[in-house]
Amino acid sequence: MMALTDSFGRIHDNLRVSVTDRCNIRCFYCMPETDVRFVRRSEILDFEEIERFVRIAAGLGVTKVRITGGEPLVRRDLPVLVRRLAAVPGIADLALTTNGVLLAEMAAALYDAGLRRINVHLDTLDRARFREITRRDDLGRVLAGLEECRRLGYAKIKLNAVAVKDLVEPDIVPLARFGRENGFEVRYIEFMPLDAQGLWQRGKVLLADEILAMLASGIAPLEAVPDPDPRAPAAEYVFADGIGRVGFIASVSRPFCLNCNRLRLTADGKLRYCLFAIEEDDVKSLMRTGAPDAEIADSIRRNVAAKWEGHEINSSKFVAPPRPMYAIGG
User: Fold this and answer.
1) SS3 helix, strand, coil % of the chain, rounded to 5?
2) pLDDT tens, 55-67?
3) CB of 237 within 8 A of CB of 224?
4) In terms of residue numbers, what domain contains 34?
């Protein structure tokens, strides 16, 4: 079997699968509050199509799958899909990213289906700021979901926090303390130009180095994790006092494009080699017109082979993708 390799020698073994573009909150940096345009439900891949695609991708060397959205927990019967994907030969790592609002009710069924790794989006522990960011009053439900996952014994629970300047500074240290106290790893994600309303500006990005300085002065110095995985998107650090770790996905200030190993399947069946890709390959049409597995595998190979060097956020050449984040998959 030949590995999925692009023209820059990057091997791709990590697939992110969006199961819906719908969401039950409205984070301002992702979705408008009203008049959101969703894909028709008939255009969304069904579980059989998703499982088939993952099986084909696994046959090409994909070993890691992450389920995303929109908000994946609003997809009906999601534990059924989790069970099916967990059973795909070759898939060694199955994870899910969620906003956590429905997690308390669904965590046990997901765990029973085979899910062990989960990332929960949480920008703040302050109820008023949570409402400001998400336009919903659901902080208590998210915290209940985290507690339920901890009770069930999920192996790795990570918190994803988007770092928007002049907004989340009061939350940086409290989130890290919360993680240290509960065994969660907080991942600070630099604000990226993927919102549906064109709000992004570089000056609104709270940079990783600024967050590092806040954590060092507010809690304890940080030390880079030794021997990190060079293809992991997050730069990870441990606190010098030995309690807890944090990660930084610094797509703006420290792009990791040259080590990227990811490809993405949108909820409506488009294959993307980058979060910021302009072009997509329509694998749903292949599946729905009777294409054999070999043809779909060829489409995956072509998509990866065409991958660009990087997203160029920091250059005048950058063009934001036509889809916002919720329509691509987190």
Assistant:
1) 35, 20, 45
2) 999 999 999 999 9
3) yes
4) 14-328
